[in-house]
Design a protein that fits this description.
220 residues; mainly alpha
Length: 220
C-alpha cells in the first residue's frame, strides 16, 4: 500500500474536488432535463424536444462530462491505495471504462432523439435509451463499485465503511438488474435508485479532502 504522506496534498484535494464536481454536474443535468412524458406519441415528443431543446443538449453535455470527473476521483483512490497493480485496481479501471461506455451511449441517444425526421426516429431512440439503462444495473455500476469497494476495504485511504458501502451498492445494482430484467422499461423508482450513489460519491470526496488535511497536519 502506498504511503499517503508521500502523495502531494494537492493530488488528494484535487481528486476530492473532482468527485464533487462530477456529482454536481450530473445532478444539474437531471434538474434541467425533466425527460419526456411517459407513453408519449411522436407529436408530443416533437413538442417536448422543441420546448426543451437547449436543456436537453446542455443536460447531455453535463451528463457526459460529469462521469469523467467521478472516474478521475475513483482513479485517485486507486492510486492512493497503491492498488494500481492489483486485480481489484485493474477491475476498477475496467468498470470505469464500462460505465463511461454505457453512459456515453445513452447520452448519444439523448441527442439523437432531437432529430425529428423520420418521426419514428424519436421512438426508436427512446427505446434504445430504455434498453441501455438496463446495462447500468446489469454490469456498469456493479463492475465499478464492487472492485472499488474492495480497494478501499484493503487500504486506509478512506474509512473502511466507504468500502463496505460501495460493495453493498454494487450488489444492490446487481439484484435490481436481475429482478427487473423482464421489464423492458425500468420503473421510475428503480432508475431513481441510481441517484443513491451520488450520496456515496459526495461523502467520499469530502472525506478524502478532510483526511488529506489531517495527513498533512500530522506530518508537519
Amino acid at each position: 500500500m502506498e504511503d499517503q504522506t508521500c502523495v502531494p496534498r494537492p493530488v488528494r484535494i484535487l481528486g476530492g474536488i473532482s468527485g464533487i464536481a462530477g456529482i454536481l454536474m450530473i445532478g444539474t443535468s437531471f434538474m434541467i432535463n425533466p425527460g419526456p412524458p411517459p407513453d408519449a406519441i411522436p407529436a408530443q415528443l416533437i413538442a417536448f424536444g422543441t420546448q426543451y431543446y437547449s436543456s436537453i443538449l446542455w443536460g447531455a453535455w453535463l451528463q457526459a462530462v460529469g462521469p469523467v470527473f467521478i472516474v478521475l476521483f475513483a482513479f485517485t483512490l486507486v492510486h492512493l491505495a497503491g492498488a494500481n497493480k492489483r486485480i481489484s485496481g485493474w477491475m476498477t479501471f475496467f468498470g470505469a471504462g464500462v460505465l463511461m461506455m454505457v453512459s456515453l451511449i445513452e447520452i448519444a441517444f439523448y441527442i439523437a432523439v432531437l432529430f425529428i425526421t423520420p418521426p419514428v426516429n424519436m421512438l426508436i431512440c427512446l427505446n434504445v435509451i430504455y434498453a441501455v439503462q438496463h446495462l447500468y444495473f446489469i454490469v456498469a455500476a456493479p463492475a465499478f463499485f464492487i472492485p472499488l469497494g474492495i480497494v478501499l476495504v484493503k487500504s486506509e485511504v478512506l474509512s473502511k465503511l466507504f468500502g463496505y458501502l460501495a460493495i453493498l451498492l454494487g450488489l444492490a445494482f446487481v439484484v435490481l438488474g436481475m429482478a427487473f430484467l423482464q421489464k423492458l422499461v425500468l420503473p421510475m423508482w428503480v432508475t431513481a435508485f441510481a441517484g443513491v450513489q451520488a450520496i456515496w460519491w459526495l461523502a467520499a470526496s469530502i472525506s478524502l479532502i478532510l483526511r488529506s488535511r489531517k495527513i498533512t497536519a500530522s506530518t508537519e
